[in-house]
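Hi all, posting the design record for the shared folder.

TITLE: backbone redesign
STEP: 1 of 1
STRUCTURE INPUT:
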């Protein structure tokens, strides 16, 4: 599928706040973020790392890190969040969509948020940013794989319209319509940071 170059969304940064008031900056992930991604994976608890990667590794494999930084804004869309904390700016979460090579109108969505930032609306903010860019890049459907025991992630993805497709072993498969999910997010008052993300990106894409 040829890329639409008519109104490109530029690399951008969006400053907003978590539900508890902590300031964060959401921005597109770049290849130069390799060290931050590696640090972020290390900072995840063993449990969160297992739920995200379906693996109990402690040190992130080089192949996974390289894949996560191979972002082009079309076939691989990714947004990260950093805490605006003095001069440190630690990574606190990321979300991405990777286009299928065999079905280019479909991609796979994945989200990770460090444990100390769960329940603060960050996952929804990151998803909103990724979905806006997916819509712009003609990626209308996203698949989501979630371990059956990960009820928090299941509740989140279902709340924005994901439909369960099947299950294989311990993994459940969901499909998310990007347009419908954006509509749900735009009509939700919580968390306020989602509105900040959608307003900023919609203004850039018009």
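Okay, here is what came back for every position:
SEQUENCE:
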């Amino acid at each position: 599928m040829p890329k639409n170059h008519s109104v490109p969304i530029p690399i951008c940064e969006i400053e907003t706040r978590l539900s508890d008031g902590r300031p964060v900056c959401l921005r597109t992930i770049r290849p130069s973020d390799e060290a931050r991604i590696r640090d972020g994976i290390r900072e995840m608890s063993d449990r969160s790392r297992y739920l995200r990667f379906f693996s109990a590794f402690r040190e992130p494999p080089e192949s996974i890190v390289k894949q996560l930084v191979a972002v082009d804004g079309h076939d691989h869309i990714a947004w990260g969040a950093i805490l605006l904390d003095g001069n440190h700016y630690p990574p606190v979460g990321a979300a991405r969509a990777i286009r299928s090579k065999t079905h280019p109108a479909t991609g796979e969505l994945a989200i990770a948020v460090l444990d100390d930032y769960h329940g603060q609306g960050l996952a929804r903010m990151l998803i909103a940013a990724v979905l806006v860019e997916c819509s712009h890049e003609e990626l209308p459907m996203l698949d989501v794989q979630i371990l059956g025991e990960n009820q928090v992630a299941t509740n989140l993805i279902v709340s924005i319209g994901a439909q369960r497709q099947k299950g294989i072993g311990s993994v459940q498969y969901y499909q998310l319509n990007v347009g419908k999910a954006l509509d749900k997010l735009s009509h939700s008052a919580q968390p306020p940071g989602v509105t900040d993300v959608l307003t900023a990106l919609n203004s850039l894409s018009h």
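COMMENT: Strands lie at 13-17, 23-28, 76-83, 91-99, 106-113, 141-147, 163-168, 171-177.
Let me know if anyone wants the other runs.
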